[in-house]
Amino acid sequence: MSGLTIPILFGSVRHDRAGIRACRWIMEAITRRGHVAVLVDAAEIELPLLDRMYKEFAPGAAPRPLYELAALYARADGFLIVSGEYNHAAPARPDV
C-alpha cells in the first residue's frame, strides 16, 4: 500500500507568523507515518491575485503556481488546513 498525499494549506503571509511551526510539526508527523506531506505556503509560492479561477484559463495558459497547485490537488488524498489565529481565536468566516 502506498502512502497518502496530504497538502497542508497555510495562508498566513505575516512576517512573524507562528503557524508555520505547526505546519512543520504536522508535516513530520505525516511523513513518519509513511505518507507524503506537501506544504502549500502562501508566503513562498507567490500566487498571483486571483482574478480568474484555474479552470477559466485556456489549457496551458494558467500562471505556473496555479498549474502546479491544480496538479497537486488532483492527486491529493485529503487536505489539512492550518488557520492563523486572530484575537485568540480562529478568523471569522467571511460571510458573517
Describe the fold and architecture.
This protein has 96 residues and is an alpha/beta fold. It has a single domain, classed as 3-Layer(aba) Sandwich (Rossmann fold), CATH 3.40.50. Helix content is 31%, strand content 16%. The protein has helices spanning 19-32, 42-45, 64-75, and strands at 5-10, 36-41, 80-82. The relative contact order is 0.25.
In short:
With 96 residues, the chain is of the alpha/beta class.
Which band does the percent of strand residues land in? Answer: 15-25%
What is the name of the CATH superfamily? Flavodoxin domain
SS class: alpha/beta
| Overall strand count | 3
How much is the radius of gyration in Å? Answer: 15 Å
Q: Determine the fraction of residues in helical runs and give it as a percent range.
A: 25-40%
Number of helices: 3
Please tag this protein with its features.
alpha/beta, Rossmann fold, 3 strands, three-stranded parallel sheet, 3 helices, 96 residues, globular
